[in-house]
Design a protein that fits this description.
heterodimer; A: Thrombin, subunit H; Pdz3 Domain; six-stranded antiparallel barrel; B: alpha+beta; Thrombin, subunit H; 3 domains; elongated
Chain lengths: ~375, ~625
């Protein structure tokens, strides 16, 4: 050890001793040392408040874990050292039990159930139950499951509400429950506390997340399809994506503190479609969009960057072109003003294939209108 | 308008929730109101800073920086890399010389209505890459510019709840910035007296690429520092002292920045004395105060262990996609918890040997602890130095490890060198031993304070602290190393493994540990608490005798019947415990130590609590004849 290090050690020791000599929560006799007592009183008061906040957390966690399930995706594989293939759990995720129109269902992600030969869920009571996939919306990563045998004692949560109704703002505490790294496969889901990091996020790619909730609760592989809750124990979203930077090559992704949930109002719309008509595909417009700004930097509409080959307007002579700016969308006589690309994406995500729509857009200095029906993505 | 509506709703909910117009004592809604007020201040003042006058693809190749508006006149604080771009984004091989910086900056301000953003021209007026700071000036600031009031970083304490905001992963290029929350995890004191008390502030709030330059604020929404980066392993040697803060967010304290820009009058005006010492709001202060004082008290029983080894621990681990991967590893000093005044210390096996790795690729099976690796890790220890809470350094010796619960027991020699003392009075004067928590203290959702001491000889005033909740309890019968342990989302790291996990009152829940270096710890939010009452107390006395626990093994394979194993032996491994005792394939085990066994669960139950090396009496049915054997349980090699 070098000399300066030793010097520093001594200085710090002095400080440590000084701190240790200051009583913190030691119960002191009131009339002997009034200043010490004030500090102890302040701590006692703080502890009481902290405990009360903790009690709200405990209550919420107990409530929400009842409806959180582990999803097991089973496939026939040949285990090492065995000659015959067996039905085994090769991947999995999380899910949530919901009650919709008086019936019990489960919601998870399409990327959790993808490629399954059989599906099971493990409920909070530790019981493994057979389930089947009712239907999916692959574009928006939503899968609706139902129990093969009617379950008893499972209540399910209500799927409704929006950001404001559920009290969601940046900084609101939320709880994520699920099955990260299969650690919740005994049915007891893993709970994690976080805050809302941002609302109305858009994530493109194979699975589109429109109007997504970003949060910093600890999410890992296996949390997919699992629920996000507010502290009242209400469902606010379905976890599905996370931003990740691998720590080292070959190591899989783990939590980074940037995770994304499908918001409950979107989930509700998707479920309504899945429960109502099982054959309805998601509406597809097939436009590559970006937000257009005016000179003052105010969002004014969704600018078309490209018209996709699968777009319903691709063969239409009167279609939109690159650079056109969409400013409003009309469906069944109801007009929605479009300010950003996400506004349009969110509106389209709630519609079904075949739905007639009308788009008002600016092409150069002219204002035009396109009328047509939504297609489907063919997935 | 939408924001207004939101606010109205929130207020109504808060009032209803509390029942009366005044928030109840210690109420969640009160806390959330405080959060909302703070966030309202920081959101409009957080900006995105990108290089200007450079091709977009060169700018987009990197996440850019965040920044914080400091004054109405358009002063913006950001990080030292502001204006960075990749001059050759198409180049496949990355070369640091491709990175260029410009002083021409585009400052993007999210529109308050959540739709789009405003863009301003700005220039860097000063930049310092060592301190990781820069000061920008917006050329034509609008009159509506919102700015953040500077607080005092000297007043900050470990455990303070804080918010970080910025353009995480470039997600806020066109949307409001990302908010994350956490506690102040560690405060590093400055060697010199000028420029505030702290060299750096580390936070447990998630910090990702792009957040650098953004603000960290207290619960009143006052600026206490700017974000430098997230501490990572990349480009660092295993003995880099900063690795003890791995995966925490590193911040530059505002008082240090104030000193750095002291010749700029315009900047100095931003620190009105009256506003700097304002009391923080009630509920969040209560939380922060409890986190701070409880963790500090716990710190008084934490030691820091420096392990001298013949050679470094291997860092190769099985990779997710097969093969091996080199895992970044922290080499210490590591945390230890002093459990008695005469020098018994518990620490995590994770830091002493390479242990189990979860391999979720195939059927989620965990790979059992590798005994050879554990043995190599333990045998490689040449010496251990323990840095005690009172600042003394003493010799310590390794006593035993427990493969089942993942802990090591160490004994420190509490006597000072050459000191002649009455052996009875060996307790440390300042020591405050942690008190075990009652079983009722464990409940999912309760707060967990993970307290660590990775500081070695440079013991700081404050511990390394992360806060989370009890995530779940893993049942004893779980076939995994964490059976019977509690899982927590309090950031478990290499540096706090071996430290104490305590509840709000400071009662010891257990010892922090990690089971896998690829998927636990780090920033994953998966760490385990070895519960004191359930797992440590029952084995402690045996371990004190120097006996290490290894999973007991009979060395037999059970015969399957319709997929479920029976108690009939299919195979007996050569030279195994069963072989040595004389057991043969075909034997049906009927009794172990007097307990009747009919299925594999009974066998497990009968063997629970046994250590390898223990003797058990086994009664078997061999061709209808009962025979008794004495078996010395072995261990996996």
């Amino acid at each position: 050890m070098t000399a300066p290090r030793r010097l520093r050690l001594l200085a710090l020791t002095g400080l440590v001793l000084a701190i240790a000599a200051t009583p913190m929560a030691t119960p002191a006799v009131a009339d002997e040392k009034p200043p010490v007592d004030a500090a102890a009183e302040a701590y006692a008061d703080a502890l009481k408040r902290a405990r009360s906040i903790e009690a709200s957390l405990v209550k919420a966690v107990a409530k929400v874990r009842m409806n959180s399930v582990a999803v097991r995706n089973l496939r026939e594989v040949k285990p090492p050292g065995e000659s015959e293939p067996r039905l085994m759990r090769v991947s999995g995720g999380s899910g949530v039990i919901i009650k919709y129109r008086g019936k019990i269902w489960m919601v998870t992600n399409v990327h959790v159930t993808a490629g399954h030969q059989a599906l099971e869920v493990v409920t909070h009571d530790g019981v493994t139950r057979e389930v089947e996939e009712h239907d999916t919306i692959p574009e928006y990563d939503i899968s609706l499951l139902k129990f093969t045998k009617k379950p008893r004692k499972l209540k399910g949560v209500v799927v409704k509400g929006d950001y404001s109704e559920r009290g969601l703002k940046e900084g609101t505490w939320i709880i994520a429950t699920g099955n990260p790294f299969f650690l919740g496969e005994d049915g007891a889901s893993v709970a994690s506390l976080g805050v809302i990091s941002g609302l109305d996020r858009y994530l493109g790619g194979r699975y589109q997340y429109v109007g997504a909730i970003q949060h910093d609760a600890k999410i890992n592989p296996g949390n997919s399809g699992g629920p996000l809750w507010n502290l009242k124990g209400q469902l606010v979203g379905i976890n599905g994506k996370m931003a990740s930077t691998p720590v080292a090559r070959g190591m899989g992704p783990t939590n980074t503190g940037a995770s994304f949930s499908l918001p409950v109002h979107q989930v509700e719309a998707y479920i309504r479609r899945l429960v109502g008509k099982t054959d309805a595909a998601a509406g597809y417009l097939g436009l590559n969009l970006e937000t257009a700004m005016d000179k003052k930097g105010k969002a004014m509409g969704a600018r078309v960057k490209q018209v996709g080959r699968r777009s319903p307007m691709f063969r239409d002579k009167k279609r939109l072109h690159k650079g056109d700016i969409i400013t409003s969308l009309s469906v069944k006589g109801r007009t929605t003003r479009i300010y950003t690309a996400d506004d349009l994406r969110e509106a389209i995500s709630l519609l079904e294939a075949g739905q007639e729509i009308s788009l008002k857009y600016k092409s150069g200095r002219k204002t035009k209108r396109w009328k047509g029906r939504l297609g489907d993505s063919g997935r | 308008m939408r924001r207004l509506a939101l606010f109205g709703c929130a207020l109504a909910i808060a009032l209803l929730g509390a029942g009366t117009p005044v928030a109840a004592k210690g109420s969640l809604s009160g806390l959330e109101d405080e959060f909302e007020k703070a966030i309202k201040k920081v959101t409009p003042a957080t900006v995105v800073c990108l290089a200007r006058g450079v091709e977009e693809r060169k700018v987009r190749a990197l996440p850019g920086s965040s920044g914080v508006i400091m004054s109405k006149k358009g002063l913006v604080l950001s990080d030292g890399d502001v204006g960075i771009y990749n001059d050759k984004p198409a180049s496949k091989s990355f070369d640091p010389s491709h990175l260029k910086r410009t002083d021409e900056i585009e400052v993007r301000l999210p529109s308050l209505k959540g739709k789009g953003f405003q863009s301003f021209k700005a220039r860097v007026i000063r930049r310092d890459r060592d301190l990781d700071t820069s000061l920008l000036r917006i050329e034509k600031p609008p009159s509506t510019l919102k700015y953040l009031v500077a607080g005092s970083s000297d007043e900050v304490k470990v455990g303070d709840y804080s918010f970080v905001m910025g353009n995480s992963f470039g997600l806020a290029d066109e949307a409001p910035p990302t908010l994350t929350a956490g506690v102040i995890a560690s405060l590093v004191p400055k060697a010199t007296t000028n420029g505030g008390k702290w060299e750096h502030i580390y936070t447990s709030a998630a910090v990702n690429r792009g957040v650098n330059g953004g603000p960290i604020v207290n619960t009143r929404g006052q600026l206490i520092g700017t974000i430098s980066n997230v501490v990572g392993f990349r480009g660092k040697k295993p003995d880099d002292p900063e690795l003890k803060y791995a995966f925490l967010g590193k911040c530059v304290p505002i008082d240090r920045l104030r000193d750095f820009y002291k010749d700029l009058d315009e900047f100095q005006e931003l620190f009105p004395e009256s506003k700097r010492k304002i009391k923080l709001p009630t509920e969040s202060t209560a939380l922060s105060m409890v986190f701070n004082q409880t963790s500090k008290r716990t710190y008084d029983s934490l030691v820091s262990l420096e392990i001298e080894r013949e050679e470094q621990l291997s860092t190769m681990e099985p990779a997710r996609g097969g093969g091996m991967v080199k895992v970044p590893r922290y080499l210490g000093p590591v945390s230890g918890t002093l459990i008695s005044g005469d020098g018994w210390i518990l620490s995590s096996l994770y830091n002493f040997a390479n242990i189990a790795t979860l391999n979720p690729r195939f059927a989620g099976r965990w790979k059992a602890p590798d005994n050879a690796k554990i043995a190599a890790g333990i045998e490689g220890i040449k010496g251990i130095e323990a840095h005690l809470p009172d600042g003394r350094k003493v010799e310590a010796r390794f006593v035993a490890f427990h493969e089942g619960i993942g802990l090591v027991l160490i004994k420190a020699d509490m006597k000072l060198e050459g000191e002649k003392r009455d052996p009875a009075s060996t307790t440390v004067a300042t020591l405050r031993l942690v008190k075990p928590a009652p079983k009722t203290a464990f409940k999912e959702g309760r707060f967990v304070l993970a307290v660590g001491n990775p500081f070695g000889s440079k013991r700081l005033d404050d511990p390394l602290l992360t806060v989370g909740m009890l995530s779940k309890r893993h049942h004893e019968t779980t076939e995994a190393p964490w059976a019977g342990q509690w899982q927590t989302d309090a950031g478990g790291t290499d540096a706090n493994a071996g430290g104490a996990a305590v509840d709000l009152e400071g009662n010891l829940l257990g010892i922090m540990t990690i089971w896998s270096s690829t998927s636990h710890g780090r920033n994953s939010g998966i760490a385990f608490i070895v519960p004191w009452q359930d797992q440590i107390e029952p084995v402690l006395e045996e371990m004190k005798t120097g006996r290490s626990y290894r999973r007991p093994l009979m060395g037999v394979t059970w015969k399957d019947e319709d997929g479920t194993p029976t108690t009939q032996l299919l195979k007996v491994a050569e030279d195994s415990a069963a072989d040595d005792a004389g057991l043969e394939p075909g034997d049906i085990i009927v009794k172990i130590d007097g307990q009747i066994v009919t299925d594999i669960t009974d066998v497990k139950k009968a063997l629970a609590g046994k250590w390898s090396g223990d003797k058990v009496v086994v009664v078997v049915d061999r061709d209808g004849v009962e025979k008794t054997f004495e078996l010395t349980l072995g261990a996996r090699e």
